[in-house]
Write a structure and sequence with these properties.
heterodimer, A: mainly beta, about 50% strand, B: mainly beta, five-stranded antiparallel beta sheet, 11 strands
């Protein structure tokens, strides 16, 4: 049972480049989330999804887009990367709002 | 943006000491309160999810209590061990679908 898998684990981008982070879960969870973690800021919610085909904005959505075409996958896109998007990105999933989240191992992204 | 505060920010204790930390959250529109344990170089791992005022949860030497009327939760660790060293996060879920995390309490247990 793999749980939540994030790819890639590390990436360096140049300003203005685009990329997609993939999150895959094999637990049949309805809810999926993308967070970013910055020093002194804690985990902040970027976007989330409450089911296949749905997405919603979190606390810090600007500069990111997401898609949930299949229940098991939640993609986070950066259309034009900026240095302010240098961060560690965590994906998480949950069965419902009263269940604990299962987190992926994180993606460390550096934008130069 | 909801305000979820944890105190202290960091804590150093000796092996065998018992310790506790606090999570403060808005007392209105409460839905659930989560606790996570986050070891260095790993991912956060769920400890407890509490939904009712007065809830108490226990997992081994770790326990948590919840007061939704006054907006706080305590996490207790009895007889701390070096392997308890981690950052402990609380997170507040209101009537919406978003979970807002506190900044965490970093616990270091010295052998």
């Amino acid at each position: 049972n793999a749980g939540v898998t994030q790819t890639p684990k590390f990436r360096v981008l140049k300003t203005g480049q685009s990329m997609t982070l993939l999150c895959a879960q094999d637990m049949n969870h309805e809810y999926m989330y993308w967070y970013r973690q910055d020093p002194g800021m804690g985990l902040r919610l970027i976007h989330y999804s409450v089911g296949e085909g749905t997405t919603a904005k979190g606390e810090v959505p600007d500069g990111y887009n997401v898609s949930r075409l299949k229940k098991q996958n939640f993609l986070l896109g950066l259309e034009s990367a900026a240095p302010s998007q240098t961060s560690v990105y965590f994906c998480a999933s949950s069965y419902s709002r009263t269940y604990g989240y299962t987190f992926g191992s994180g993606t460390r992204l550096t934008v130069v | 943006i909801l305000n979820v505060e944890q105190s202290p920010q960091s804590l150093h204790v000796q092996e065998g000491d018992s310790t506790n930390f606090t999570c403060s959250f808005p007392s209105s529109n409460f839905y659930a309160l989560h606790w996570y344990r986050w070891e260095t170089a790993k991912s956060p791992e769920a400890l407890f999810v509490m939904t009712l005022n007065g809830d108490e949860k226990k997992k081994g030497r770790i326990s948590a209590t919840l007061n939704t009327k006054e907006g706080y939760s305590y996490l207790y660790i009895k007889g701390s061990q070096p392997e308890d060293s981690a950052t402990y996060l609380c997170a507040f879920n209101n009537a919406g679908n978003m979970l807002t995390f506190g900044g965490g309490t970093r616990l270091m247990v010295k052998p």
